[in-house]
């Protein structure tokens, strides 16, 4: 017998439903409370499991309602046919969730989806029993349920609301969110079917070895011959919020030019597994170093950092094995865009906030207290990432991230989009942002040496970053050497080849060309463009004595279009060739001959005269009036 006490909820089915409801409720609390306080309980997005457990609890309560109404002697289960249809739909949803997440190798989500099946089946079975019983009652002339005379007016109203309102409200909620979860699960399964992991997942440790996860390393042209030799390997680090697919064109450009290249997905991006909260930048850099060692990539390294990836490169040079780094390339890199923009607008709180950040930075990450630069802006950005992380399992972000036409070849466009549409993308952004966009910048502060600080103070520049390590640089034949040139400032004793490449559109103060018509916004942009340019000059003067600043100005040969901020996406072959030429060509020309060839002052961002890029070695106008050496890149 399925039930051991007639006409009550105390049956095998009822007890199982109550236990399952308790399990769903406790799981929801665990993921919501404990998961947020103690890193993560699961490898994936914990909000996926919160949604699955919440919908499971919802189905449990609905099944309990159906059974209790069926067994009641003084109640009537209305809408039996609708209950049967709803339960059948949720059964189908449960099976689809099992199939979708099992195929995409998320066993936990598949199991939680399967727990929907039992309450959904109970709803169908007991609704069907009720419908059949009521049909028999009608044949026998037994009237349908009416409020008993002994019921109070409030009790009668409550029963009416439960009988008529409760089903429709819960059906709409269950079907809507259940369908969204199924759409995302099946879409992820399809992405997993179409786009297999292109690189290698390498296990790394973090938080002093307490946790581990797998980091995705995707190499191009790294043949056995390259592995056994001493040719440098380009290591590409992406901009904030960008997966490895965003730089695959550049990596392929290096490979086509005969140089191996590897892209590394930071925690949660691309195919890397998510990291742990609180995500410490120094732990991430050490994980990158572990991934390179375990892949293994034993060759000398040339780091190419795009945007914030350039800041990660600078941090790597301070805390990881910088002795195997043979060169550094920074693409449109700023220490922190938010801070620089605030300073450009001459806000009085900027300098005080920066002083607080520097004073709170200890010699190690454990001694460093995270300081918000602008709590209001950072809290809003953090909430935005967290909110999208919450709704990612509901597929609501798929339409938001469906663009990228023209940024990727059609052959790889689908794979690129898939990395923005999974359940982990916004979790990765939320973890990396860490509640404050200045966390990565602050992690660099303990490594700023007095001589670099003195030069930047002399230049009246508010931001700080460390010079590259004096003893950095693996010995590689064929790397660019500018050792014969006198250093522009005694800010760094490193001779590591450094290429700083920036798109000139960032420095173009012509508001009309930027599409800005509002006078106030135009004033802001002009301030931003000047300070963006000045930042590149400061980098060139302080990171290394062997640094070159390249400005991508006019249309480039690859597509004859203006060199804007999308040059990493749209012009990977040209960019790879320009970087290879700067890094590997010997520069033996003496300073006097180079200066005689072409020179100009450093006060204008339009120093380049070639139709692609120009190389500059100069001091900023605020520090000296030294002439800028300009050599065109073929």
From TrEMBL:
Keywords: Membrane, Transmembrane, Transmembrane helix. InterPro entries: AB_hydrolase_1 (IPR000073), AB_hydrolase_fold (IPR029058). Residues 246-342 form the AB hydrolase-1 domain. The keyword Membrane applies. The chain crosses the membrane at residues 48-71, 83-103, 109-127, 168-189. It holds the Pfam family Abhydrolase_1. Residues 595-634 are annotated as: Disordered. This is AB hydrolase-1 domain-containing protein.
């Amino acid at each position: 017998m399925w039930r051991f006490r007639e006409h009550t909820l105390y049956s095998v089915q009822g007890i199982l439903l109550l236990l399952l409801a308790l399990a769903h409720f406790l799981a929801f609390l665990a993921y919501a409370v404990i998961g947020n306080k103690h890193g993560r309980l699961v490898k994936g997005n914990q909000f996926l499991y919160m949604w699955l457990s919440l919908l499971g609890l919802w189905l449990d309560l609905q099944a309990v309602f159906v059974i209790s109404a069926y067994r009641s002697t003084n109640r009537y289960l209305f809408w039996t046919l609708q209950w049967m249809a709803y339960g059948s739909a949720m059964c189908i949803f449960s099976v689809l969730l099992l199939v979708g997440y099992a195929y995409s190798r998320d066993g936990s989500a598949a199991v939680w989806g399967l727990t929907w099946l039992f309450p959904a089946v109970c709803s169908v079975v007991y609704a069907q029993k009720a419908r059949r019983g009521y049909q028999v009652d009608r044949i026998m002339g037994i009237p349908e349920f009416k409020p008993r005379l002994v019921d109070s007016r409030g009790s009668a109203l409550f029963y009416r609301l439960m009988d008529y309102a409760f089903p429709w409200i819960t059906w709409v909620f269950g079907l809507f969110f259940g369908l969204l979860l199924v759409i995302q699960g099946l879409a992820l399964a399809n992405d997993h079917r179409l786009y297999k992991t292109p690189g290698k997942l390498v296990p790394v440790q973090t938080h002093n070895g307490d946790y581990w996860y797998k980091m995705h390393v995707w190499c191009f042209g790294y043949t056995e011959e390259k592995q056994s030799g001493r040719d440098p390997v380009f290591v590409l680090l992406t901009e904030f919020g960008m997966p490895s697919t965003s730089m695959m064109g550049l990596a392929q450009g290096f490979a086509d030019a005969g140089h191996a290249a590897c892209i590394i997905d930071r925690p949660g991006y691309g195919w890397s597994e998510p990291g742990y909260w609180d995500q410490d930048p120094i732990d991430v850099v050490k994980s990158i170093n572990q991934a390179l060692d375990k892949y293994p990539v034993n060759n000398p390294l040339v780091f190419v950092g795009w945007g914030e990836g350039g800041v990660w490169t600078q941090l790597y040079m301070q805390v990881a094995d910088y002795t195997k780094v043979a060169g550094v390339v920074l693409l449109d890199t700023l220490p922190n865009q938010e801070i620089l923009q605030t300073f450009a607008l001459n806000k009085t709180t900027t300098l005080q906030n920066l002083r607080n950040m520097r004073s709170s930075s200890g010699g190690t990450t454990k001694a460093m207290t995270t300081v918000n630069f602008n709590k209001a802006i950072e809290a809003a950005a953090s909430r935005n990432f967290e909110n999208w992380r919450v709704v990612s399992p509901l597929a609501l972000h798929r339409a938001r991230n469906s663009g990228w036409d023209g940024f990727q070849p059609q052959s790889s466009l689908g794979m690129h989009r898939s990395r923005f549409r999974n359940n982990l993308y916004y979790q990765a952004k939320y973890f990396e942002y860490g509640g404050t966009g200045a966390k990565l910048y602050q992690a660099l502060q303990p490594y700023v040496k007095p001589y670099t600080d003195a030069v930047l103070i002399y230049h009246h520049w508010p931001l700080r970053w460390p010079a590259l390590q004096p003893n950095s640089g693996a010995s590689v034949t064929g790397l660019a050497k500018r050792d014969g040139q006198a250093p522009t400032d005694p800010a760094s004793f490193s001779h590591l080849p450094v290429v700083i490449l920036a798109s000139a559109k960032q420095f173009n103060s012509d508001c009309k060309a930027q599409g800005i018509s509002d006078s106030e916004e135009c004033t802001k942009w002009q301030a931003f463009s000047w300070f963006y340019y000045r930042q590149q000059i400061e980098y060139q003067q302080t990171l290394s004595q062997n640094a070159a600043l390249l400005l991508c100005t006019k249309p480039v040969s690859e597509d004859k279009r203006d060199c804007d901020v999308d040059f990493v996406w749209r012009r990977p072959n040209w960019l790879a060739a320009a970087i290879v030429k700067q890094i590997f060509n010997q520069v033996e020309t003496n300073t006097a001959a180079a200066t005689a060839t072409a020179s100009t002052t450093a006060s204008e961002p339009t120093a380049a005269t070639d139709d692609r890029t120009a190389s500059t070695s100069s001091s900023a106008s605020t520090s000296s009036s030294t002439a800028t050496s300009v050599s065109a890149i073929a």
